[in-house]
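**Protein of interest**
===
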Amino acid sequence: MSLINDALKRAKDAQQKSPAVAPGPHLRPAEPKAAVAPARGMAVPIIVILIVLGGGVFFWLERQKTVEKSPAETKISAAVDPVPPSKPPVQPATISIPSAATNPPAPTQPTASAITMPKLQAIFFVPGHSSAIINGKTVRAGDKVQGFRVAVIDQNSATLVSATQTNVMTLEQ
């Protein structure tokens, strides 16, 4: 124990003999951190993105409601020909060469019976997305069939328009 006491006395004497150290900077006690305001730099873009996504989901759901209506609201009218149109029998081709003694045949104008009118076979009515089957081809408003433009497709009729005439076709029942 005497060794420890002797070491302590020597340390005390050494401190008293050394000059006093100049005081350093004044240190303040630790203070609690001040409350930091939340960063608003990213808040505005995030809010805008959420609003845009919410609007997109809203419009998508509204579109789904119009497309997927209940069967009572959506009317699908369809009438299909029970007998498909039959093709005329194929006739063998004949070639006739006019002789010098006979006059060449006069050119013929197409008659009303030679021009075939389009035939409405079915209507699939969905408001804004209706389609029809005309001469076996599915068409929508704006499409062309045999020189006619499909103007309107209603629940029971389709209206075709050409440069010279308008044809309102209805389903045969």
Observations:
- Strands lie at 120-124, 131-134, 137-139, 144-145, 148-153, 157-161, 166-170.
- The CA atoms of residues 17 and 49 lie 73 Å apart.
